[in-house]
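Forwarding the complex inputs:
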Amino acid sequence: MRRSAAANAELALHLEVASTPKPGNVDRHRDLDGLRFEHFLAGGVGARPGLEAAESGAPVGEAFERAVAGMSEQTGGNTQFGCLLLLVPLVAAARGGRPPTREAAARVTDATTVDDAAGFYRAFEHVDVAVADPPDGWDALDVRHGSDAIPALRERDLTLADVMGNSDGDLNAAEWREGFPRAFRIADVIQRGEGPLPDRAARAFLDQLAREPDTLVATQHDRETAERVRERADELRGASEKAVEEWADDLVARDVNPGTTADLTCAGIFLALERGVTV
Amino acid sequence: MRRSAAANAELALHLEVASTPKPGNVDRHRDLDGLRFEHFLAGGVGARPGLEAAESGAPVGEAFERAVAGMSEQTGGNTQFGCLLLLVPLVAAARGGRPPTREAAARVTDATTVDDAAGFYRAFEHVDVAVADPPDGWDALDVRHGSDAIPALRERDLTLADVMGNSDGDLNAAEWREGFPRAFRIADVIQRGEGPLPDRAARAFLDQLAREPDTLVATQHDRETAERVRERADELRGASEKAVEEWADDLVARDVNPGTTADLTCAGIFLALERGVTV
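Prediction (whole assembly, two chains):
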């Protein structure tokens, strides 16, 4: 009995949060104030019906909203909104029992509609998500308006791919625009790695964090903080486990949470599972 | 969007393994040799379709076999066979959106058939389970025969409830025979508890361990060891966290794994979630 793509996506959510050390984030050994490990477990379990909808061919926006609604049935707040934004199109791209390819994923995002964009906006009504201010001329389309922004979406005839095309500086949106290069690279890193999958995923997380400033850190703090985190991650590649553990504690203490890098890692874990990497 | 009974059962599997300290078992902070935290995450995700079958009214034996088959899609071996043996009838008893009662659970077990017993035996073909030798006159019905025992089951016209009625000394079988008194008591303990659900579950685990010798410890070691573990758990009720943590490390080092107590705790977590205890 092979796990379905939706099951692998849910498992990726759990394996992501279980991977440790993932500096600054909730992991097997660390909680944040009010956001604990078990909130992620409940979020992943709750997201499953939405992920199954994506696998069954439901529209991407509808499947995403359903996944986020289910994820939100816990008291920790936003646990995996960004992960789901990547997982839903990748699960949709896995249909037919084959591991998703970048081409198949791009076909999914290219085919999104204005209705999918509306589903994405509705998803913001289920949970508070930390987002940056919208670009100039996009005030009416601020995602924080939730479904109130839908008339403006329809007026401008914007698909979900269009919306992602206008989210400058967001690595998850960049994945949508560019055909998920980071998720597929992380899957390669995990696939080539050795040892238990969560250990490989933690190393892949640090590697991604060393490459690009994390979006959530830039949003919650500023660009310089995000760049300093990137530099420190780069210094720590290949450092002792102790040094990485210490930095992980330090980031948690300073409320510096590279959550977007965790989203990308989760998507990479999913792709690795789909390629047959075992747990 | 309320979580379904099947989703709550899967979440109970994850919360059980995340609860810590659970002396002697895999928990958020401890792995065993070759049996790691992530194997339980994959086991829980894989069990979901079988749990959903139980919720939809599939025969208990069929749902159980399906849950075990899905659980087994990971490389750690048996992770949650005993949990599922309790969860499947309890999920079946939750049908209709109400939390299961002891009466509803007893109706489910009372209604089991010879086909359900056959499904139970088939489940042993998916994974190696540590079990005691069968009672006198039951050699042909040793569960380790798997489906080869089914003709003997049919010849003697034994339902799954009959099979459980002949498993002396197994606390999970006793739950089946007695209408799940331990699972419901543990749910009460969790419901009355304070703090995060995994902390309450860890305390409920220790409390149950102090009450009755663990079946798996008796099977893998002997009755005296199981009784000594019970006595030590009783001494440690209300002891410092440090003392319990040290004992947890000690039991893991000595390969003393009270897995049946973990099964009962998992069933209690499920019932607590069904009653509306939040994560």
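Residues 120 and 183 of chain A are 20 Å apart (CA to CA).
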